[in-house]
């Protein structure tokens, strides 16, 4: 096997194990703090999201725009980038420590932006969790810095496998919490300072170990880091030019997410709220991340090469080909998740009735799955041409629409026109609508730049896929009903929910491919070639 093949195998195995252990981690956490109608779970979800939100801003504004590209470039220097990387690590660490300190000081304010002040006890609990979780910003940053350096030196395995250690530590910690303090601790009043420290500390300890594991492999890089505050030449002067639009885009998205949480939290303790939305999004992103990142990333590389060479005709062909290829796989996955929505949601809930409520939220998110895949290609085409300004504006439009739809959903729930138990689903549907509008606008803007995008061809292909998906999803839903439906064995337990979802998915895929074969879809040949490349020995 070639070195590239070995690296791909290591990365693929690490990603798979990481996702499986991550699934177990979430299952155990739900057993401890619940999900649907759990005020405590929503408080923890808000607090544990904060480090990711703040780190994403830093990542876009500093790491992605300046530090990571410079690490790769410096590795080719005569000293292997020793001096340069020392400067970058000193700068990155200072930024991360400062950001962590500021976030800790602002913890009550950051939490209050996402939780309604009408429940002061929940607000206090979320703030207490936040103090324990926010140090994750530093460890996330160190993980990114060290991991990207290892990757630049072709040491791929640790970066992919380290999250597995995080998941294992979290699983053990959550199990201990359940054994010591009890399970299904859904009420805010159930929580003591010791319990808060255990849960928040476990979550942060996992991220710290994840970063620490990478440091164990640092010697393999051959680099000797030194503290160096002489930052001239690091590229700070280019930060504003390179990262300003993407930083504003990340800030807008974070603000929209905070507002969504604030609206949805009105249902906390009564029905689906922030935690259920997070878990539904986790299911939603599973097929997206696997398919789009594994298949779409090589297309983006080729597209970038053609854009750099000013070969616009080839770029247009790349756009059409990539959308049709991604659409083929994602539509099949969409049909499978729609049919298995209830048993899949059971994995992240503690009862069959809760699974039904969570499935409604998941279905509302799924409305935007295909548009999101199209947006992935369109947005990255702008990036390939070095344009980060235009994506900011159509992302700003999406954020505005998210705010409007969430406000409408909140008003309908407050007016009792919409049941409070459907508030989270309405917020999720609003996000799907906003994303669809964003995709349409982004495509029109790209068409104005590149001319005709062969949209008729790829839209016709997406239409074929959707036609085939209808009987496939119906067949899968029929299997779900034959297995007992909402009261059957597929919703009796979390593990049985996984098994049931797998059975339904197999049936959906078989019917989906058969339907496309009857329609003589030309994309089947392309898909067959891609699948073969992922088989062992290929």
TrEMBL record:
One of its GO terms (biological process) is peptidoglycan biosynthetic process. It is a multi-pass membrane protein. GO terms for molecular function: lipid-linked peptidoglycan transporter activity. Pfam families: MurJ. It is found in: Cell membrane. GO terms for cellular component: plasma membrane. Keywords: Cell membrane, Cell shape, Membrane, Peptidoglycan synthesis, Transmembrane, Transmembrane helix. InterPro entries: Lipid_II_flippase_MurJ/MviN, MurJ. The chain crosses the membrane at residues 26-47, 53-72, 84-111, 123-146, 158-181, 196-218, 239-260, 280-301, 326-346, 358-378, 390-414, 420-446, 458-483, 495-519. PANTHER family: LIPID II FLIPPASE MURJ. This is Murein biosynthesis integral membrane protein MurJ.
